[in-house]
Design brief:
7-stranded mixed sheet; 15 strands; alpha/beta; about 325 residues; 6-stranded parallel sheet
Amino acid sequence: MFKAILVNKDDQGYRAELTQVDEANLPEGEVKVKVLYSTLNYKDGLAITGKGPVVRSFPMVPGIDFAGEVVESSSPDFKAGDMVLLNGWGVGETHWGGLSQMARVKADWLIPLPKGFTAKQALAIGTAGYTAMLCVMALQSHGLKPSDGEVLVTGAAGGVGSFAIALLSKLGFTVVASTGRLSEASYLKQLGAAEVMDRAALSAPGKPLAKERWAAVVDSVGSHTLANACAQTKSDGAVAACGLAQGMDFPSTVAPFILRGVTLYGINSVTVPRAKRIAAYEQLSKLVDLKTLDEISHEINLADAVSYAEKLMAGNLRGRVVVNVNQ
């Protein structure tokens, strides 16, 4: 038996609770892992609270990422004792995830724990930091340079936004942070933001084209915010979109793309091939200051995950929430 957060939907309604689970109920997979740490991401908040149709089958263990130690493996890629990391691949949505003391998954979904990071540090980065790195890599592939101008980061106080600010600042970019929590301005500037702006300037319906300002954008918000960010991006600039905190809609026009040559990169962190995942973590190992991890993240126990998911969905958490599943 092991402890896990279990989400159910039945005649009694939708609920998530900490419970005991029999190992015999673990889903199929080549590798069984003793989970050490998981996290709370936006998808996990949706899954636990039921505020979005994230969970595809019930009962479900949420948690879209985890780090831990291999207990059993029928795959030649991993053996008992190996430390591993998982981000995405539908865990916590269609396959039992990381908010649990045990997991069984496909070997292809795992990568070795990145060098230079402990299990806790890798999860302090987690899917949010890894997604932010994928956004930065897209902008790098576009040829973006610090001399090109300001980079806008929306949803700045969240996990992706926090890491995007830290990574871009470390690379020498001038970062402007957009947030609905101006009380977090000192935190965002500590991460490297040169300026903090109220998200209200971007979140309402805007013009198809606006005054050019941004050389590039990292957006985790979607909806009008993404549309306005594109409308304000400079000619031949780039926008990396990875989230939908404001909404899934994109009320824009083709104007920024055909009149200014703006490129919109869609960032899918869920099914990225292993080689690209490893490359992303190699960059993270060079760019992430371990002291910054302490500023961006804080640790909670597994029993606190449900209540913290409510806080996350209410917009009352900043940075990263690391879940110690064994406490």
